[in-house]
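Support request from a user on the community tier.

User writes: "When I paste my structure tokens into the form, the page sometimes reloads and wipes my input. The last time it worked, I copied everything first. Here is what I submitted, just in case something in the input itself triggers the reload:"
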């Protein structure tokens, strides 16, 4: 192997490593300040201030919270399976980061531009169930086990409707590559047709992330914290980071599938001077605001209501929409 070839490989590796570091640091900062934004938004909606003490306007509060959590002692229950107990939060957090490999945050700004990116995303998001089941079982607590089972059944139920919604998008764009999905032409009739699926997708990602009003796996009034009840300090912090990283990931997925990714909104070509990553960030933040708004305004569902919504309403609706989408594309000869 020539020296020039070795230098070229080293530079490619260094670029990829730098890209990964930038992405991970960006996600971790996003998670930290999403917690700050959540407390501020909830405070505004409840006519109070939220964090104001640590740093100017409370901007250093997430750092203080992180230092506090990571400096505490990790307590492992004596009856717990220690290896599985410690592995569960690591798996959940790692999967929330690994999924970002195929998310295009700007044109040609993606770690792995693979042709089956959407399948990769769906597979990674489905694997998160294992981390939660492991946490619920390894704690050797009835509350934790019940919370883990609740979360697993909830996530599996809503992944079915999410998968069918993604099939509708794939039919309309003709690709499994996320960059091609963003760049695919979408006439106004197609955007109107997919809009109901966008609404269903937003509700489904609330359930997928165990967020209010579907936060039943952590129901404090019923099972005192669910699958996280025995976790403390660093292990609890990893669950916390994983949950908020999943929120950002699902918002980025919705932006990529329905909102045009890094492209200016509503086809405003005269706004092309704004960097694509800025548009991507603004759209993702808008969907994250929906997460916070839902938590501030909606009461928690009963578990039977949650299951009925997923299996009796969303599943038939999305299945019907897949058939309708295929029929519409064939009837008007609009297959991509």
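"...and here is what came back when it finally went through:"
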């Amino acid at each position: 192997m020539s020296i020039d070839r070795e230098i070229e490989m080293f530079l490619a590796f260094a670029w990829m490593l730098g890209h990964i570091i930038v992405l991970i640091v960006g996600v971790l900062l996003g998670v930290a300040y999403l917690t700050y934004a959540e407390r501020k938004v909830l405070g505004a909606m409840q006519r109070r201030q939220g964090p104001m003490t640590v740093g100017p306007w409370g901007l250093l509060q997430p750092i203080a919270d992180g230092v506090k959590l990571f400096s505490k002692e990790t307590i492992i229950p004596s009856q717990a399976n220690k290896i599985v107990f410690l592995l569960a939060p690591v798996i959940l957090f790692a999967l929330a980061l690994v999924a970002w490999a195929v998310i295009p945050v700007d044109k040609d700004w993606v770690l792995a531009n693979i042709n089956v990116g959407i399948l990769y995303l769906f597979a990674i998001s489905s694997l998160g169930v294992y981390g939660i089941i492991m946490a619920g079982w390894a704690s050797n607590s009835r509350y934790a086990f019940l919370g883990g089972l609740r979360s697993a059944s909830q996530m599996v139920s809503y992944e079915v409707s999410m998968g069918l919604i993604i099939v509708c998008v794939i039919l309309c764009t003709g690709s499994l590559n996320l960059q091609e999905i963003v760049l695919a032409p979408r006439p106004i009739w197609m955007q109107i047709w997919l809009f109901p699926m966008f609404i269903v997708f937003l509700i489904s990602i609330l359930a997928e992330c165990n967020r209010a009003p579907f936060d039943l796996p952590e129901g404090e009034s019923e099972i005192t914290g669910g699958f996280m009840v025995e976790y403390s300090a660093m292990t609890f912090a990893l669950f916390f980071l994983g949950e908020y990283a999943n929120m950002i990931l699902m918002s980025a997925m919705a932006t990529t599938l329905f909102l045009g990714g890094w492209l200016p909104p509503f086809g405003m070509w005269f706004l092309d001077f704004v960097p694509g990553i800025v548009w991507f960030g603004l759209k993702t933040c808008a969907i994250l605001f929906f997460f916070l708004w839902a938590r501030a305004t909606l009461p928690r569902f009963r578990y039977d209501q949650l299951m009925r919504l997923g299996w009796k309403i969303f599943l038939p609706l999305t299945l019907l929409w897949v058939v309708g989408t295929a029929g519409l594309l064939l009837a008007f000869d609009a297959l991509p």
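Agent notes: The reload is a front-end session timeout and is unrelated to the input. Residues 3-45 form the longest helix (43 residues). The chain has eleven helices and no strands. Escalated to web team.
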